Amino acid sequence: MRFSRPKQPWFVVVLLLLAGVARAEVRHPIHFPDLPDHKTLACDLHMHTMFSDGQVWPPVRVAEAWRQGLDAIAIADHIEYQPHKDDVPTKLGRSYELALDGAKTANVLLIRAAEITRDTPPGHFNALFLDDVKPLATEDFVDAVGAANKQGAFVFWNHHGWKGEEKGRWLDVHTTLYEKKWLHGMEVCNGDSYYPGAHQWCLDKNLTMLGNTDIHEPDLRKQSAPGDHRTMTLVFAKDRTPEALKEALFAGRTAVWFNNQIIGRPEWLAPLLDRCLRVAAPHLRSKDALWVEIENVCDVEIQLDRVGNVGPARLALPAGTISLVKIDTPTPSEPLELAYTAANFLIAPGKGMPVTLRIAGETKPK
Amino acid sequence: MRFSRPKQPWFVVVLLLLAGVARAEVRHPIHFPDLPDHKTLACDLHMHTMFSDGQVWPPVRVAEAWRQGLDAIAIADHIEYQPHKDDVPTKLGRSYELALDGAKTANVLLIRAAEITRDTPPGHFNALFLDDVKPLATEDFVDAVGAANKQGAFVFWNHHGWKGEEKGRWLDVHTTLYEKKWLHGMEVCNGDSYYPGAHQWCLDKNLTMLGNTDIHEPDLRKQSAPGDHRTMTLVFAKDRTPEALKEALFAGRTAVWFNNQIIGRPEWLAPLLDRCLRVAAPHLRSKDALWVEIENVCDVEIQLDRVGNVGPARLALPAGTISLVKIDTPTPSEPLELAYTAANFLIAPGKGMPVTLRIAGETKPK
Amino acid sequence: MRFSRPKQPWFVVVLLLLAGVARAEVRHPIHFPDLPDHKTLACDLHMHTMFSDGQVWPPVRVAEAWRQGLDAIAIADHIEYQPHKDDVPTKLGRSYELALDGAKTANVLLIRAAEITRDTPPGHFNALFLDDVKPLATEDFVDAVGAANKQGAFVFWNHHGWKGEEKGRWLDVHTTLYEKKWLHGMEVCNGDSYYPGAHQWCLDKNLTMLGNTDIHEPDLRKQSAPGDHRTMTLVFAKDRTPEALKEALFAGRTAVWFNNQIIGRPEWLAPLLDRCLRVAAPHLRSKDALWVEIENVCDVEIQLDRVGNVGPARLALPAGTISLVKIDTPTPSEPLELAYTAANFLIAPGKGMPVTLRIAGETKPK
Amino acid sequence: MRFSRPKQPWFVVVLLLLAGVARAEVRHPIHFPDLPDHKTLACDLHMHTMFSDGQVWPPVRVAEAWRQGLDAIAIADHIEYQPHKDDVPTKLGRSYELALDGAKTANVLLIRAAEITRDTPPGHFNALFLDDVKPLATEDFVDAVGAANKQGAFVFWNHHGWKGEEKGRWLDVHTTLYEKKWLHGMEVCNGDSYYPGAHQWCLDKNLTMLGNTDIHEPDLRKQSAPGDHRTMTLVFAKDRTPEALKEALFAGRTAVWFNNQIIGRPEWLAPLLDRCLRVAAPHLRSKDALWVEIENVCDVEIQLDRVGNVGPARLALPAGTISLVKIDTPTPSEPLELAYTAANFLIAPGKGMPVTLRIAGETKPK
Q1: What pLDDT does C23 receive?
Q2: Considering only alpha carbons, which residue of chain A is nearest residue B228?
Q3: Is A155 part of any domain?
Q4: In terms of domains, do A197 and A223 share one?
Q5: Which listed residue, A174, B140, D66, D349, has the most CB atoms within 10 A of its CB?
Q6: Of the partner residues A218, A259, A316, the one whose CB lies closest to the CB of residue B60
Q7: Contact C214 B1 (CB under 8 A)
Q8: Of all helices (H) and strands (E), which one includes residue C17?
Q9: Is the dihedral of CA A222, C316, C298, C332 positive or negative?
């Protein structure tokens, strides 16, 4: 019975009965290292509540994000699609207001957002960092996007490969937005879907890559585990603030975590991968082999295919573990540089990220 | 076959890993056997949605119940407590209407219900099997319970040990209801709480025992696992219909599944326990010992303490497993009857259910 | 400290410290239904111990089998390959002797066996149900198989696709054994490998199909879970005895459980599948659709592809769960028969088992 | 994107499932931070193999240790107790030899050891860092311990509370060893047992505290998870070498990880706890409360009881998670120091470690 509960954010008081002891709910950190000059923020910038076609009261989205280790979320309820309105009268922007207190308490960055929702074409678009959702409720689609831009919003095209005959096509209306600089990014991944077309366009047109859940139901996950996590956007921001997040999104400093893949530009995947992999000095050397431990400190399994001649043909390095690697080569006098491709760090559709494993030479025995 | 394997360290040998394919959500059955003349229905008869102080849209409750293997649920939104009403105007009984289609599709019995919500005393009361919630919205508490009874409702006192100075006390108003035969049951368990006082009153006053979640947030469980399940009421009904469920509740044929305990009257716990335990014939006999396999086919670990002289002093039989039991006794000519108490099958506060383990004699060797 | 422990079988000794309470180890049943006239026995008939090139003391194999729900095992230590012999002097058949007491206590059927181990060709062969291993230690390979047959052994060809240039080839020596009726089965699966060639030969030459682990290291599994189980042979035997197991193996009444697939002859897969699937009567009918619950009571996900015109194109029914299936068809006056193929019940390489889902007609509403 | 989803029941919507691919075994790191001047080495210094009364071939112990993240192990087979000797002729020290290659490859420190095994009294004693086991095989017990010390061995008393009438008693023979400085430590924990008496003696007599598994069977754990780990000794060593390990053991720089408790001297528990807990600056301040995130980066849940007046009465901080803590106090001008006891960091039997949580003051707002 929690009659008086709503007055304080509920994720603080939800207690588990575990082996007969009541416990507070906890936050499970996501493990992606920060970059040298940037913090790595885990973000889900597309989700719904009761105030459009979602199934939950807005603070639930904060609680889910908190326990799963997210840094920032945006509730982007549909402006035009309001299937619950007979029971829940339309109040644009209301989900943000209802979720804000909890977000402050939980130290989750909450971004005011909305989804501009039209049939395909043109499709659905999210606007983030709004001051006020209402001006976006205009009849003409381009006007709506313009109203968002007038507020300095970051606008991205959602699940572009979804539904309708024109799905996945870049049409005049998109060119219009693009030329006005009113379109800043695309969802390369939405929920369980990956759109290679959107991926390629982001590269060709210099748009920011995003991956989000677009979740409508409650999220049952207690944590973002390597094998069962949200589709999310990793944003490389100068600080953990809404302002820094916005700057990073406009600057295109993102990667998408989707189904054990990291999708992004090589300039951000290179330093990320570099910090995820820890290659120890060889601990054993025989006449014609070296033994090395390689640790993967991040939450995705790193899948390496050999490009050069030395090293195992294929290495699968599971998240959060250490692998024992035998390299069939005589002990070199110089450090070894093994050329690999990280097959699941995608820098273009179907194209993995090149990576070099540096193995210390004889002069630095362990 | 790894004939030549020992030449290289075996921990390099490859194992299985899991990768992704999309699939439909499924229902996980709850494992409590039916009784000889009754079906065992798993029921949660107290939960909330957006339409009072809950956090979810009503069909979420059906989806949770379906995937966790429940047979019946009652959404009992508060009549008087409507903290969301500025956003969701009060519509008594609306949560039932919105959940009904999904319940029919999912084959979950949905019971129209409401929670009559007053400060303690008198406290909170659920009314089930209503035709119409609105007549219960009257100022006087006793009138409200009367209105429910006029509709033939089953009425029970919720979480009686919750909140206020008068909590957990049986007062004149309760006697009034009881004497009018307007009060039919009590929650012995609510969420993470067990109320021994309510337990005793149910025995003394012949009230039906219930256990419910009173859940407000989304339920994250994918299934009702032995170690992590809802608090629920097992109802022993003649059929899997709302009518049979109602008959069984009025007749008091229930047990409560709470935190690895089953709480109920001995007349129902005896046949339930009898069907949960399967004692095989001894498969090995020595001069002074027998070996027997005992299977526990239900979802609670059964914890047995020896009462007699023969058999292990204590047996913990985990859910869904088979235990190997050594009985230190010469092979008997007659079947053995071992007297135990099932410590976690409570027939009164602190009192376990007596149970006899019957071991086949020599004449029935395996 | 268990100084005096070896005198009684160790798997009886309490092991786990769980939530501060010591508990006995338990057996986790495997869930495959018995057939109308046969018991379904879960068997692993190829494994190793210290007495050839394995890594464990023989009773460990019994303990593993018991906790994982197996009915029968055969320790088939290599006769000729004895890499530990400097430390463990060769004693043919000794592993059986050391494991026998524990097997009796644990009610696991232990089959005396050995592996006749030669380079390919001819390869490795297991002989089961031996009276004495020693006579098989002869120089000539055919003589060794003959010595096994003289004892009435059931002989099968192991991992025929393993190692050497001649691997996976049927040569004169195999014809010799076959024509003498000295070769009775083949491993269609061994550990993580499936051999389609062996599968086809079993069909063509009427040999019994087997699947085994050939395990050398300790088996870390606590139970045979659907997603992580041993490769094993399901034997459909008239009773749970060594004699009945032998009769069933010679009669070819087996199926192999391998990596979420069941491999076997249609005469045994048909009744097995029939008992694994429980199709309820429709619980909801609309003008143009039916809703049905289908339960899968066994430990493999059943993967169905539609052959006919009615029903979902594809159904994945996870182990131990109930799926909700919508069938787009007007309510029929007659029962519906939906034609599917169980894609992962293989009756030949690449060929699934045909199966009919029978849906009750209007006359039998629920 | 599930824009049109509400029209059909959502629980039909597809989810992710996992299917198989082969992979190498991995090492799962244990998470205890290094101390400022010392590395934290995870050690299990008491285990058995086939060469005494264990159930596994020696390299199995290395594989177990490697995958579970241990830094060092000692196989301490009984010298005098050789129940397998009819099958495995006694070879003192042979288990070390057989395990050594694998240990080098896996980068696990393997310590040559033996268990001097006599009835109680005097009981069982482990000798580590031996050059040769054979000289310890002498009839007189004190001579055997002397022979170990002659080799510079570290000697500790095992499971002193185990078995016999004299169990758990400090007798003349122990005083003899102690006065000769031939006894250097005691097992405070062995497997599932904790010995408060041994704990107190280690404090009183300045003996090193150890905790080990004394495992005989295969260890089924894939990793040392917070809720299911080996009993082990954390050794605070100057380097990750056998020599540094030995120095640290003689110097008494250890703690025992046992059943979600850390047992040790305050001089080592203080810096360990300090590095396990990360108290962030308050991220939210109201008129009369602060909100703070506290991360626990180690593998034990840290259980804090308040000693002072400010802060929650009890905090349970699960392993590897972040807890959200509300502190009911007006914003202070100075940093807050909250006095707690870490109830499960034992510095004496029944006595928790005092700890101060430092909360940044107003001058450092986030």
Answers
A1: 59
A2: A18
A3: yes
A4: yes
A5: D66
A6: A218
A7: yes
A8: strand C16-18
A9: positive
> For residues B45-81, b (16+ Cβ closer than 10 Å) or e, as one string?
bbbbbbbbbbbbbbbbbbbbbbbbbbbbbbbbbbbbb
Mean pLDDT of all residues in B39-64: 97
DSSP state for residue A308 in the 8-state scheme: S
The three-state secondary structure class of D283 is coil
* More confident call, C270 vs D335: C270
Q: How many CA atoms lie within 13 A of A135 on its CB side?
A: 14
* The pLDDT value given to residue C366: 43
Model pLDDT for residues A210-234, shown as the tens digit of each residue: 999 999 999 999 999 998 999 999 9
Taking an 8 Å cut-off on Cβ atoms, the answer to whether B218 and A60 are in contact is yes
Q: Are residues D199 and D101 in the same domain?
A: yes
**Which stretches within A107-212 are classed as H helix?**
141-150, 172-179, 196-205
**pTM (two decimals):** 0.93
Q: Do residues A107 and A156 both lie within one domain?
A: yes
Q: Which residue of C has its CA nearest to D8?
A: C326
Whether the Cβ atoms of residue C366 and residue C280 lie closer than 8 Å to each other: yes
pLDDT surpassing 70 at residue D9? no
Clarify whether residues D249 and D279 are in a common domain.
Answer: no
Contact C314, B128 (CB under 8 A): no
User: Cβ(C127)–Cβ(C145) under 8 Å?
Assistant: yes
The number of C-alpha atoms within 13 Å of A49 and in the hemisphere containing its C-beta is: 29
In sign, the C-alpha dihedral spanning B215, B219, B222, B225 is negative
Say whether C324 and D11 touch across the interface (CB within 8 A): yes
Q: Do C17 and C109 form a contact (C-beta atoms < 8 A)? A: no
Specify the number of domains making up chain B. 2
Categorize the per-residue pLDDT at A6 as very low, low, confident or very high, splitting at 50, 70 and 90: very low
Q: What is the CATH number of the domain that holds D305?
A: 2.60.40.3090
Residues D206 and D355 in one domain: no
Cα gap B106→B100, rounded to integer Å: 10
Question: Last residue of a domain, which of A214, A229, A259?
Answer: A259
Pairing of strands D336-348, D302-306: antiparallel
Q: Is the dihedral of CA C203, C209, C215, C218 positive or negative?
A: positive
Tell me what the pLDDT averaged over chain A comes to: 91
The whole domain housing C339 covers 271-359
Kindly report the nearest CA distance between residue A301 and chain D, in angstroms: 11
Cβ distance of A84 and B57 shorter than 8 Å? yes
The residue from A233, A259, A285 where one domain ends is A259
| Span of A324-338, B278-292, C172-186 with lowest mean pLDDT | A324-338
- A44 Cβ partners below 8 Å, 6+ apart? A65, A70, A72, A73, A74, A212, A213, A215, A230, A231, A232, A233
Counting every residue written for chain B, the total comes to 366
Which subunits sit against C, judged by 3+ Cβ pairs under 8 A?
A: B, D
Decide if B23 touches C, using CB distance below 8 A. Answer: yes
| Tokens at A123, concatenated | 């499709």
- CB contact B313 to D (< 8 Å): no
Q: Does A190 touch chain D (CB under 8 A)?
A: yes
C171 shares a domain with C73? yes
* Mean residue pLDDT across chain C: 91
Residue B309 lies in a domain: yes
Domain assignment present for residue B31? The answer is no
Comparing CA positions, the residue from A119, A211, A121, A117 lying closest to residue A175 is: A121
Task: Please check whether residues A304 and A232 belong to one and the same domain.
Answer: no
Give the other-Cβ count within 10 Å of D182's Cβ.
18
pLDDT attached to residue B15: 22
Residue type, A319: A
Give Cβ neighbours of residue A179 (< 8 Å, ≥ 6 apart): none
CATH of the domain at A133: 3.20.20.140
Torsion angle in degrees (nearest 10) through CA of C311, C314, C316, C322: -10
Structural domain includes residue B135:
yes
Looking at the fold, whether B199 and B296 belong to one and the same domain comes out as no
As a whole number, the mean pLDDT across chain D is: 91
